[in-house]
User: What shape does this take?
Amino acid sequence: MKDLGTYAPNTWCPGCGNFAVLNAIKPVIGSLHEEGLPIENVVLVSGIGCNSKIADYINVNSFYSLHGRAVPTAEGIKLADNKLKVIVHSGDGDAYGEGLEHLIFAAKRNIDLTVIVHNNRVYGLTTGQYTPTSPLGFKGRSTPYGTKELPINPLELMLSSGATYLARGTSHGIDLLKKLFKEAILHKGFSVVDVLQVCVTYYNMYEYYDKRVYQMSGHDTSDFDKAMAKIREWDYNNEAKIPLGVFYRKEMPTFDGYFPAKEGDMIDRDARIDKMLKEAA
Amino acid sequence: MDEISVLIGGRAGFGIDRAGIVLAGIMGRLGYRLFVYRDYPSIIRGGHTFSIIRASKDKIAAHKDRIDALMALDSETLKAHKSRLKEGAVVIYDPESADPGPLPDSCRPVKLPVGAILKEEKAGEVMRNACVIGAFCKAFGIDWGVVEPVFRKNFGDEAGINLKVAKRGYDAAESITVLELLDKDPLPLFTGNETTALGLIRGGLKAYISYPMTPTSPILHYMAKLAGEFGLKVVHPESEIAVMLMALGMSYCGQRAAVGTSGGGFCLMTEGLSLSGMAEVPVVIVLGQRPGPSTGLPTYSCQTELAFAASAGQGEFSRFIAAPGDAEEAYGLARMALDVSWKYQIPSIILTDKTLGESAYSFDSDLIPEPEERGEVIWDRVEPYKRYGDSDTGVSSLAFPPDKDAVVKVNSYEHDEYGITTEDAALAGKMQEKRLRKDKYLGIDLEYLDCVKVYGDRNSDTILLCWGSNKGVCVEAADELGLKVVQPLCLLPFPAKQFGRALAGAKKIIAVESNATAQLAAHIKSYGFEVDETILKYDGRPFGVEELTELVRKAVS
Assistant: This one.
């Protein structure tokens, strides 16, 4: 398999959940390549946050964008050339906080992108503040007495917004991550994989998750209402069991499909503009 | 009659805008050169709206305050614009729906039973405009044969009934004077927004992305209309933040992309602007100025964003700023901005405003200079690809995904030549120097181009200094008073040498600007140029020719 590493030194903390995501996505890209996907067709887009450093660590095309803005950047890339496989790596502060508007609209458009959210439920790079998915009462550096707001359930929001592939994995389950990433990338439409990824330094949830997660079986992924019910089993706040795997999958027209791949005809432009001017006179 | 100014006004929703364009079209067919100023409030129905249609034998880019004909669809129009009437001006109105009050003795009222005509023809209220246009044409001795094709072109399927109503107005009015037919080919009528769009398309535009905002929404509409014809990708996303980032995504893949907005939207674009600077991903921004601060006067005009455009975005990076003054310059500079952006991999800002964007001009494509050859630097495929490879000019060669021989990595963080993040002190310094070096070479390019325009009496030692849409009005005021006009087209990098030559021998420099703080005067000060006086207007309305002429006359006496 093609070596997809770079010379960039990895600066994640030892034990960081991001390693699991990196170690899952690299072989997935590698295997897609072996199955015939030209490696140059892969574009990785990241926002800003510990997770987003992944752009430096994988030797494929990448656009290391702004905090919250990975999704619209990726949309522009996909609209420019829809044969590209565009994979977004984003954090929970990134995708669900600063850039939530873009995520909702991308889901609404069902644009053919894959968004992998490294959801550690804490701001790592800015050293430990609450995020949109931190539980009620989370004591972070900006909320030393505990948050006074409930978390959002991002998958519920994504399902209502029109995303057509929704799944969840954890950083203690690399085989599942590989399966989900590959399916999400191959899915034609807007796919989101929420990865419960653990920040060992600011919010170590390994034990918590290990006790509660289970892999769904026999769930009907084509049924919207059943998907919503499954997604609502755990609301990122209660003490319920946490389902992992695919919640929802549907084929729908994609936004990028409406833009002709055909390049604008540059050669005739002068003549056509001249004709327009003449006709307007 | 060398020229004529006509004002048509009524409530928003009366079709005043279209009436203005039809009147301009008719006079254009007679060989006149047009300028149409449109004044409307930020509401959809109701409120006073008007257009001033000025036709001249010479090419013009400004309106006059005084008018030869007033076409009033309501009393408000008569009241608001009576004071503009020249000696012997024609006033067309329907006494049933508009009360003129006392009119000046010298004027020639044309009382037109518009309401009765509409009733007889079973025509809608919105066709009042067609009726008064008909009457105007008769009053000014315009042959009916000239009128008909213009109606057909502008009203499409509804031309029939509109023409019927117009003909009734034509027949009901008397002939007062004759607007002579000129021996000149008609020129097409375009707004500055439209010619900005056409210039971008000619510059190789592949994608236009915009969130609606006055005064640049018409560019979005026009691009959307032309998308099929020119193979454009036209997108209207959720916000200006998304607009900017989508455009950068497109550019990253090698597609020339532009965005359009006004000051408020540009605020949201600034993080993306700074990303364009750092990641060296080109983008062109059409920044149509309207008065702020904040929501301000949404449908009016100003020149308040020069300082903002010049400094927007965190950090220090190169950018190109150009300010066109009329429809031809909008076309030429839009095309040039795309080329500059792609040659130097920097953001370009085209500073327009509501007056330039939404006014209609007779457009003469012969006045647009031929473009320079200035293509982007494409990777030679010899050395391994480095997205940020250093060079003498600071410009790195471009490759676009998918390229089987190149991994293309762009980065908002400081980065090395391959695009990998770095915090190394020596490398950070080197990369910043590389990016800013482009500024110097772009500056040299600009000195060889015609970036500073001079008009009027070149021997005069009194100079009217202007930029953007004030060009037309300044040229006319200067012609009247025997002064010289200097208009920089490029504002950043500033072509200081050319500008210095244009100012040589000046004893008095008067800056004319549509803002309250004389932003161009402040801008040139940093290059060592001082203005002696300023004439500033910041009520959202453009200078009229007579108004500015008087202000300048006072300033020079």
